[in-house]
Amino acid sequence: MQSSLGRFELAVLCVVVELRGDGYGVPIRQAVSERLGRDVSIGALYTTLARLEAKRLVSSNLGAATPERGGRAKRFFKATSDGVRAAEQADTAPRRLWFQQPVEGGT
Amino acid sequence: MSRMSGADIAEVQRRLDLFSAWKLHWDPSDRAQYHVLIQCADRARAHGDLDEAYRLYDYVARELQGLMYDVPDNLFGIIFSSAVPTLGRKTPLLGPPTDPGPWYLPQMSHLALQACGVRTLNQAPPDGPAKFLYMLMPVEKCEVVVGDLEEEFRRHVQPRFGATFARRWYWKQAIFTCLEHWLARPALAAARFAKEVLLEAIKRRMSDSGD
Predict the structure, then answer these.
(1) Helix extents (H) in B68-162
(2) For the segment B40-80, what is each residue's pLDDT rounded down to a tens digit?
(3) I need a labelling partner for A95 at 20 to 30 A (CA). Which of A31, B51, B136, B142 fits?
(4) Which of B151, B154, B185 is most worth mutating to test chain A (most A CB atoms within 10 A of its CB)?
(5) CB-based contacts of A86: which residues, under 8 Å, 6+ apart?
(6) From chain A, which residues contact B within 8 Å (Cβ)?
């Protein structure tokens, strides 16, 4: 199933794909802010990550606690195979709109 | 102490000239020009040229003092600056300002102080925002969010902008995180409900026209 992704969701998903499982709140937020050219609140980021997780495009697991974070754990995010496919297909979707050509492997 | 090379100085000069050109088309909401200058200053500092770095930091600090007002470092100030971003500003001044007023930009003066080697860092993050989040959000979500905010406070925001700005940033992030948490679910539910109602109406219309 190909789920529709908003621009912000797509930016977050692409960053998670690029970080290859090493991404947690801080680096993901910085990368998304750089990519979109605006400040992104951590709340908006986690809401979007939760939405992507509900769509089964990313998965998460808790890491170790560090003193720098006041003894709190990190939550690492990793793109699932559906997530990687959705990020790849998001690139071809505008082309399909322009040229009315079916996307390979799409619905 | 190593000095900047000729190419680096030329780059700094080029960017300063660019900055002068930008000033002719001044837009108070655009801070990008200052970011370029701060990058130049960072570069000068990385090369060990503290004189040049200080000159650039000081230039930015003095310019910003005269160009805009800041808001108080408390809850009212954060809400005020977020809700009405244009009210805290005033028109540009020509030349260095004589009276920065009570709303002096602390983060820029911090950069100038840091370039001189004066340390204003390593303050612990405030307790208030974390307590605020724990009070209004689920604990398991708070653990991760507060951890991220503390890490960013210590590693990125405070070293770059100083303790006062970092504290305000922390409060702002906590408030917006809480708002996102409480507003996102009802908004999503409302959107789903609207979608279902619309689909139902379309189906009914199609079945009516079919009959």
Answers:
(1) 75-83, 106-115, 128-136, 139-152, 158-161
(2) 777 777 777 777 776 776 666 655 544 444 444 445 545 54
(3) A31
(4) B151
(5) A2, A3, A5, A13, A57
(6) 24-26, 29-30, 41-44, 46-47, 51, 62, 65-66, 68-70, 72-75
